[in-house]
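[audit] Reproducing an earlier prediction to check determinism. Same input, same settings, fresh worker. If the tokens differ from the archived copy the diff job will pick it up downstream; this log only records the rerun itself.
[audit] input (176 residues):
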Amino acid sequence: MAQQATAGRRYLRAFVSGFFVAVPVTVTVLDRLAYVARVEGASMQPFLNPGGGSECDVVLLNRWSVRNFQVQRGDIVSVLSPKNPQQKIIKRVIGLEGDFIRTLGYKNRYVRVPDGHFWIEGDHHGHSLDSNSFGPVSVGLLHGRASHIIWPPSRWQRIKPTLPPNRGPLDTDEEE
């Protein structure tokens, strides 16, 4: 009987010590390296959630790659919503600081992206709350970069930066 109690205590002690190691490691990984996010809604169709309906894509968001706020045009990023800071949104980077952008319904037809900001848009323009609604987004709201689609298994793939046709910064050399 005493051996069972001793074995039980050892098991409990091992579990508790493992717990106190695993929790900080897990929190650090999720805070600094990467985590997964479910992409809901139609704003990034057809690239994400191409079938619509109830099946949602799940993406791996790389937090380490954006630790210095470095993104490139075509990246799909997660940012805190400028309209609702309790919500994270996933959009595509269209323009970086200093770029001139032709907007799709913003209050100005053309916008120069200010320093420390970028321009983001959903791929499905009619169904997206993006920079065309709230303007350039501060890089301080950047939360992660989508690097892979990990669910459903039939869509496993690395996400490469690409710009939709006819989107991106205006070429100022052509105007001169």
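[audit] rerun output stored. Observation attached for the diff report: The helical segments are 2-33, 131-134, 172-175.
[audit] end
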